[in-house]
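[job 4471] stage=fold_predict status=RUNNING
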Amino acid sequence: MTQAHRADDALQTRAVHPPAHRTGSLSRPAAPPVHRTATFTFDSSDSFAAVMTDHTQGYAYSRIDNPTSDEFARAVAALEGGQAAQPFASGMAAITTTLLAFLSSGDHVVAQRQLYGGTHHVLTRVLPRWGIGVSFVDSPQEAASAMTETTRLVWCETISNPTLRVADIPAFAAVAHAGGALLAVDSTFATPVVCRPLSLGADLVVHSATKYIGGHSDATGGVVVGDRHHLDAVRALRTDLGGSLAPDEAFLLLRGLQTLPLRVERQNRTAARLAEGLGARPEVESVQHPGLSGHPDHALACAVLAPGRFGGVVTLTLRGGESAALRLCDSLRLCHIVTSLGGTATGVSHVASTSHRQLDDAALAAAGISPGAVRIAVGLEDLDDLLADFTTALDGL
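[job 4471] inference complete, writing structure tokens
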């Protein structure tokens, strides 16, 4: 039987038929086996040493590599169009390891100002301990001005958390490469269903697989995709730092990956219609969603994102500020108050006190995050039920 996966298969086909190791048997399991083991045994010390030194392909210790975790990474690489991928225990493990794999003391990072709070904290509070500087920018033009001789990495998010600004990935890539730097893109909010940054010039793509890739709020993981040379550096540091993905988590993430295109397409459609439906409410100061014609990046979104897909997140800013935002979250019947996103149930969170709690008032203002901002991560519920839930909650403010 020939290999089921081909690079030119449609996205849903590749999601259902990810690349898999051949076993040499006439049959193979229909679902990926879980290699729930910490160590692997060998017939000789020489074969053990050959695997440990990477002279022979194989597995010795699950902190280094595990077959189930590797299968998950290969599946994501196939969807992103990358040569290789590395699996991690969380999205933050993937982010921090990627940063440290390509940065040393004295180096410099140019980063998009609108970032996930955890990433912002690492850039501003952790990396400076090792003498790594960062400049925050709002556009590729500002990025070009911020580049220095020591800039090694440019960092952005395809769709930013939670302001939902869309990155001009081709322009950021041009700036990074002109300065001899790499472009890393956190594409968690987009997934390969909405955007494939490698095809737009990015060198590395990072995902918190806990979100849409897993899709069921039952597994934690991260993944980095790129070419083999860059991923060798990421793997080496992942091995040293120990943020490796457990096989049970990898199995759950692989299972979620098979329905990723179906779920994301549904969540994107519902999010766009929910954003339209909430925009006219008097309690709402503004609605952020790239699919709205009034969004500042709508034209860019139409150019760099898949047609008709603008992400499954809507951010509301309420006129009543933080107190109104908290009351809205507490009043919803169907929506879970939850820190993560991308699951089957719609989740809401007050941004300033949760996902971006590490930012002070000045940093929040600079990132465009109001005290009244509520992030809505749309799930798989019926649109009319969600609209009714928000209507009732907003009526009660």
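[job 4471] summary: The radius of gyration is 21 Å.
[job 4471] exit 0
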